[in-house]
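Practice problem. Given the sequence and the SMILES for zinc ion, write out the predicted structure.
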Amino acid sequence: MTLNDTDELSIFSISNKELADLPEVEGDTVICERCGEQHKIEYGLKKLDNGELVPCKTLGFVSCGDNKYLVSLHGRRITF
Ligand SMILES: [Zn+2]
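Answer key:
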């Protein structure tokens, strides 16, 4: 996994093999790497062709203080 972080842009890349080797997220909370507390994972919604919005686990974030952090990708635990 590669992270390129500048003042204007943050980009990360991960290969399919790296992603497959990551542990699956268990439950709906994770231990926060910043504060050590447990936070609920927040997922986005996907819009179906009929307009219905359904939960989508492509990206999972936690809120810590005033910030949000990426913690999961396709159900796999991401750490930086
Ligand atoms: Zn936190």
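Check your answer against the key. Residues 32, 34-35, 37, 39, 64 surround zinc ion (CB under 6 Å).
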